[in-house]
């Protein structure tokens, strides 16, 4: 699931679950909404991402590239090493600022 929140200067995407091929149908609509908001800073909260493949990476890359062309910046927060590796293999890590100071709030274990 991808939730969008805005402030006067920032758009924040909070992503939870898998960011992969199975979720790709929602990517064009989300990208259009983010671009349409025209904020200078895009923060992508990856704290609750459970898996990202190259399709998810391509989605993030397209968002960062769109923002960069408008003079904006894209920040990744809560990204684990596995996700950073996928972006590095794609040759796109330089498109992002990495928020290394952010500490994710632990998710309580599921009952059952």
UniProtKB/TrEMBL annotation:
PROSITE patterns, alphabetized: STAS
Protein origin, superkingdom: Bacteria
InterPro entries: STAS_dom, STAS_dom_sf
Pfam family, one: STAS
Domain STAS: residue ranges: 1-112
Organism placement in taxonomy: Bacteria, Bacillati, Actinomycetota, Actinomycetes, Micrococcales
Name by which UniProt lists this protein: STAS domain-containing protein
